[in-house]
């Protein structure tokens, strides 16, 4: 499968509205890379308060979207029994740079890549773009943990 829509992503991730930020995962190279699409809208939940009259997508939500995209890429590539009843938690965020503000009513594309994995720990890197303009980039690590019952 080369792409996933939002309903398919919901089958892989526990996130739900309003915290499910990614709308699509495309150009998937199994367990290696993908591009996530975040439709940043004027009615996105953060717009009214960050900042009134000059809305900007918070950098922390860009990092969260990177994490969600990486989790979906990984879960999509693993056997279902490996990620079933599991959660993915961010462990580290490194070299995060926010180069340009992400203004609502745009399509934010997150190009992510898995750098390495060791057991349940994965390391990723990503770049965020609106069109050809780089908005942010970061590296991060995440771990797969058992869901509390």
Structural descriptors:
seven-stranded antiparallel beta sheet; 149 residues; single chain; alpha+beta; Thiol Ester Dehydrase, Chain A; globular
What can you see in these coordinates?
This protein has 3 helices and 7 strands, in the order E-H-E-E-H-H-E-E-E-E. The protein has a single domain, classed as Thiol Ester Dehydrase, Chain A (Roll). With 149 residues, the chain is α+β, with helices and mostly antiparallel strands. A hairpin with a 2-residue loop joins strand 5 and strand 6. The chain is globular and about 45 Å long. It starts with a strand and ends with a strand. It has a 7-stranded antiparallel beta sheet with strand order 1-2-3-5-6-7-4.
* CATH overall fold name: Thiol Ester Dehydrase, Chain A
Report on the biggest sheet. 7 strands, antiparallel
Q: What would the average pLDDT be, to the nearest integer?
A: 95
Number of helices: 3
Count of β-strands = 7
Instruction: Provide the low-confidence segments as ranges.
Output: none
Termini Cα gap: 31 Å
* Classification by helices and strands: alpha+beta
Assign a percent range to the helix content.
Answer: 10-25%
SSE string = EHEEHHEEEE
């Amino acid at each position: 499968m080369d792409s996933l829509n939002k309903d398919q992503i919901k089958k892989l991730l526990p996130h739900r509205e309003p915290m499910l930020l990614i709308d699509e995962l495309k150009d998937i190279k199994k367990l290696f890379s993908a591009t996530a699409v975040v439709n940043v809208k004027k009615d996105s939940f953060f717009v009214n308060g960050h900042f009134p009259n000059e809305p900007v997508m918070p950098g922390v939500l860009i990092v969260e979207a990177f994490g969600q995209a990486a989790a979906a890429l990984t879960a999509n590539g693993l056997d279902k029994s490996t990620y079933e009843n599991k959660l993915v938690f961010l462990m580290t965020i490194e070299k995060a740079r926010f180069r340009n503000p992400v203004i609502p009513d745009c399509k934010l594309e997150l190009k992510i890549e898995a750098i390495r994995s060791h057991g349940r720990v994965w390391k990723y890197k990503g770049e965020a773009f609106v069109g050809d303009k780089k908005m942010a980039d970061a590296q991060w690590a995440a771990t797969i943990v058992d869901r509390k019952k």
